[in-house]
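re: ur msg from earlier - yeah i can do the magnesium ion complex, just paste it... oh wait u already did. ok heres what im feeding in:
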Amino acid sequence: MLSNESNTGYNASKYSYLYHYKMEERSLNFLEEIIEKDLAEGKYKSIYTRFPPEPNGYLHIGHAASICLNFGLAIKYQGKCNLRFDDTNPVTEETEYVESIMNDVKWLGFNWDELRYTSDYFEQLYAYAVQLIRQGDAYVDDSTAEQMAATKGDINKPGTDSAWRSRSIDENLALFEEMRAGKYPDGAKVLRAKVDMAHPNLLMRDPIIYRIKHAHHHRTGDAWCIYPMYDFAHGQSDSIEQITHSICTLEFIHHRPLYDWFIQKLGIFPSHQYEFARRNLTYTVMSKRKLLQLVNEKHVAGWDDPRMPTISGLRRRGYTPESIRNFADTIGIAKRDNITDVSLLEFCIRENLNKVANRVMAVLDPVKLVITNYPEGQTEEFDAENNPEDEQGGSRKVPFSREIWIEREDFQEQATKKFFRLAPGLMVRLKYAYIVRCDDFKKDEQGVVTEIYCSYLPESKSGNDTSGLKVKGTIHWVSVPHAQTAEVRLYDRLFRVENPANEDGDFKDYINPDSLQVVANAYIEPALTQAQPGDRFQFLRKGYFCADKDSTPGHLVFNRTVGLKDSWAKEAKK
Ligand code: ATP
Ligand code: MG
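and the outut:
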């Protein structure tokens, strides 16, 4: 199994190894083993899974792992997978979230067999509760929350029975009906399962299964003022949908006995719960509550801010569905909680974009280079291959002229050791074009270099180079008269520390103040003016970029998805 239990010291070649290992011959994970055994033994004819988000926020990369797992298993074993909105909490749920979740699941490439809402089962769940009351397995309790906490006991001490535990079935039925009818205010009564107040598992000590909440529900409106608790909704919903393998995260492991208890008492379809470890990522936070704070307090521009670990944020940042699916497959599933290095996610997107993104030239920190021996007013066009990794990628024309923009960092007044780009006396190749030699440069009063003067070698034209010269550096450029401008947003990690949720104090104290740097006026080659929001490119030598949703033909905006190399790995080694 390919889990990422230890997550330090990975490098790209190791990821690559993992990736190919996984694709070709990875062994079964523990869920696949269970499923294959269940199918072999004829326990089920086919499997049925579900992805059950609560619509109280946008989905994040952890959810993506769960989506890939649930839908992936259904695909692998030719079973089915539902999308089910677990909408039993009327206060935090919104239709906006429902829509974003459906959109994200589809974008990741999955189709649900059925779209379900737990709220569709409210009537059925109510009937199940009545059944339990009739069987003597549930009772209405008038205790306050404090009283209930006080009689709960603890791990070492058994709880004590509530004074209302011995109510008659008839009385319970009448009271529960009145609860439904709206006769009581919030918190006045609850319905509890009559399990065992001395049970070693505290969740089994007469858990609450219904509470009164006079709140408007995003789908059922004001039809209900009592709502089932998670434990009384989830397993039963699984059962109603005939889910065979109900996969959830580890924090629910102690809920499993209760899950089974309800199914057994109700005599309904025997769904089974299995747990796997939550997926976490370094340099970010993953809980929806924390992400909501970042949005509400405007630390980010919204749920889809490209720095967010949300699926919509990653999409806007330029991530592809394929890269996220590969990431989820590569980390696999684990039984122990762990945190995955974000550089693995970055590796997955680089690997994907390297194959599909067209190469283009953009200069982010420009300085002008003048080719003094190139005729004024002359223009020529070079054929530039769009993507050397893609034979069908085609080519484009790149205009060239006497004046070009290059990156300021590609020039040094005096070359330091191992600097193979431009400095007086040094030669470099201009990508797709000629070799140039630096002769001179000009500075302004502040000492800032304003122009670089070079001469070119006409016989060194790319593809037809007869100069016999070998130069060590190749740089990108954009012709001055042909250049278009664009805004470029350079994103970095949102947090300065690996696990902000684990640090002392408020996680927001660890926000990286430099997580967004805006280049207001980058120069781009003319081909890029056609870019539509969502289009992805490799800016040669600069990284992978994606046209933002804010981009218009008059004002192009690009997001940096990821650099070409893992710059943080280098940092760490220094
Ligand atoms: P959060 O804690 O981020 O609010 P949640 O568990 O409340 O998440 P749900 O909407 O209940 O979010 O989750 C839907 C499904 O996604 C559940 O099955 C849950 O176990 C799974 N899931 C949520 N977060 C992760 C994660 N980090 N890694 C793997 N699966 C996750
Ligand atoms: Mg939840």
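cool cool. The first helix runs from residue 12 to 25. ping me if u need the other ligands too
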